[in-house]
Each structure stands twice: as structure tokens, then as C-alpha cells.
Amino acid sequence: CSKAEQLSERMPPISVLRPIIWAVVDTMSSPTAGSMVMGLSTEIGGILSDNCSAFEHQVADLKIRQLSRLTQATALLYVSAACFVFSGIVDALLPAGMGWIQQIPQVVLFAGVVLILVALFSLIGYGFKTMSIRKMQFDNNRSRSKGRAS
Questions:
Q1: Which residues have C-beta within 8 Å of that of residue 41, sequence separation ≥ 6?
Q2: Would you say the C-alpha torsion 88, 89, 94, 100 has a positive or negative sign?
Q3: Are 37 and 71 in contact (CB under 8 A)?
Q4: What contacts 23, CB < 8 A, 6 or more positions away?
Q5: Is the model more confident about 50 or about 58?
Q6: pLDDT tens-digit profile of 77-87?
Q7: Positive or negative CA dihedral for 28, 29, 30, 35?
């Protein structure tokens, strides 16, 4: 049995891995994550540069937490991509018949998939929290404008 045949028996079919790998590469390479970080940082800077009210400090605090959540999710995506690469390299270099050590690439691959799942849930949470912060800002602005109109 050649090394290539052994690899093909142990590894899941590429058709299973391809969508996962493309999702990671697409998410990491999209300008959206970078522009979201930059936009959020600019917005936080704008809030903090002015003479802030208590409400604006509260919003800035929430947005800083959002920035942290976004940065963590992006880092998880990068680590998951590293797990995929590391898994492939280790699997290609391991000789056959090494017992439980041969399971390491599959465990690392599984860890990469789990990290993607955690990152995606984090990004979903980020999106929902972003909407609640915007609604809070909208409600505050609306109540201030009603107070001025009276």
C-alpha cells in the first residue's frame, strides 16, 4: 500500500472539506471584517474625542466590547485555517503504522472545524448585539429630539 493510498483511506473526502476551507478563506480575505474593525474603531474614537455624556460613555463601552468580540472571532478564523494547514502537513509527513499518533491530524482538523463554528456563533452574536446598540442609540436620539421639540 503506497502512502497516497493510505492517505486517501484515512482522510475524509475533499468534497466534505472544500466548503469549510472556502468559507474560512472567503471570510478571512473579505474586506468586510477589516472594514468593520476600522469603522468601529473610528466610531469609538469619534465618540470619545467629544465631550461625552454618560450615555455616550455607555455606548462607547458597548462598542469597545463589540470590537473585542469581532477581533476574537477573526483570530479564531485564522487559528482554524492554521489547524487545517497543520493537519495536512502532519498527515503527509507521518509514516504509516504509527498507531494512535496517526489520529493527530484528524483531531487537529476537527479542532479547526470547531473553531470555525465558535467564530461563526461569535459573529452572529456580534450582529445581534450591534443591532441592539443601534436601536439604543436610535431610541436615545429620538427621545432627545422629542425633548427639544416640546
A1: 67
A2: negative
A3: yes
A4: 116
A5: 58
A6: 889 989 988 88
A7: positive
